[in-house]
Amino acid sequence: MIKAICFDLDGVFFSEQSFKIFKRKVAEFTKHPDLMDEVFHGSTMNDFKTNTVTEGEYWDYARDTLGMTLANEEIFMMLRKSYLVDPDILNYLCEVKDAGYKTCLCSNNFVTRINELEKEFAFLNHFDIQIFSFDIGVLKPHANIFRALIEQVGVNASEIVYSDDRASKLDGAKELGIHTFVFENINQFMCTLESLGVNIESN
Description:
The protein has 203 residues and is of the alpha/beta class.
């Protein structure tokens, strides 16, 4: 019996285009657009997401590497204004929460993005359990981030379902016995949960 539903953020709760929009905005101010992928998807970003690089250190690195003079607040505002919540996912999230399921998120993320998007959308209160890589110190698909999820939810792994838009991020959850599937769209998401016994009408 499923008792907890765990969501990813980018590409599931937030539009998959959101971070791409942010990068396009930043690219207008950089002297080195060829280094964008390294800055936003490379090893230093991974260090930022696992809290081995501080927020100040990361954005100083980004400015230096990209050759831009934007202040942190200018960058952070671009980030806030680039994101869109998927309204269908939000509606469904509210429905499963109202039906009594525990709502969770598990995300490889950096503290700037979470703080700024919380300012913009106040979205965290939709989730009973919040697991971030920068708190746990490891990235999905490492099993430890999902161990933290199981511990904080307080139910058996087999009573949790987790969906991510990337299959490569599911391995640690599968290893621990969490139900997993790749997110494709809201209709597929709801149908898969229903096939696992999630019922928002009578729970």
